[in-house]
Design a protein that fits this description.
Layout (H helix, E strand, L loop, with lengths): L1 H16 L20 E3 L5 E3 L7 E7 L4 H18 L5 E8 L3 H11 L5 E4 L5 H4 L6 E5 L5 E6 L3 H14 L11
Parallel strand pairs: 3-4, 4-5
Antiparallel strand pairs: 1-2, 3-6, 6-7
Length: 179
């Protein structure tokens, strides 16, 4: 019995040690240079990952029909976007996997989101990072390397994202000093 318990503890510890890498559908690893891509947001802004060195980048992959995505996106809006949208060292892009620009645009309008959204109708961007599973978050550090990736949505996992971004963007926190 002790061996079974020890084995289960070991398996659990090893799966947690990868920080989002235990998922066999993930094609990238923490520490890898992030695969470069370009896209246009639904409001026409061009994003070229290869030209964003020196910035912290958060990529969120979602689908309009995905329940966990629909739970997570309002939290991304309130806890990430509204906090860092004016930070010149932060870039966020929310990418609709297998959705057209019109589908993403209709979804954003219906949900009243203000974050930058882009469409990925043929999985051309998604397939650089993974084969399956959404929601999926990837955070890229200022050096262009992946510093976090995770799938699914839980409040505990999302707190890790918030803590990581707060740490990496602390030098750009709004100043409350008197003038």
């Amino acid at each position: 019995m002790k061996k079974v318990v020890l084995f289960m503890i070991l398996v659990s510890a090893l799966s947690q040690a990868g920080l989002g890498q235990a998922d066999s559908t993930t094609l990238t690893r923490i520490g890898d240079i992030a695969p470069a891509f370009t896209c246009s947001t639904i409001d026409g802004k061009a994003i070229d990952i290869s030209k964003l060195k020196g910035k912290v980048i958060m990529i969120n992959f979602f689908a309009t029909w995905c329940g966990p995505c629909n739970s997570e996106l309002p939290v991304v809006q309130s806890n990430i976007w509204e906090k860092y949208m004016n930070n010149p060292e932060f870039v966020l892009v929310v990418i609709g996997r297998e959705h057209t620009e019109k589908e993403v645009s209709d979804f954003v309008s219906a949900k009243h989101f203000t974050m930058p959204f882009a469409a990925d109708p043929k999985r051309e961007i998604f397939k650089l990072y993974a084969t399956q599973n959404i929601p999926r978050n990837v955070i890229i550090g200022k050096d262009g390397r992946i510093i976090f990736q995770g799938t699914g949505y839980t409040k505990a996992e999302f707190r890790k994202i918030e803590e990581l971004l707060a740490e990496r963007l602390k030098s750009q926190a709004p100043s409350l000093s008197k003038k």
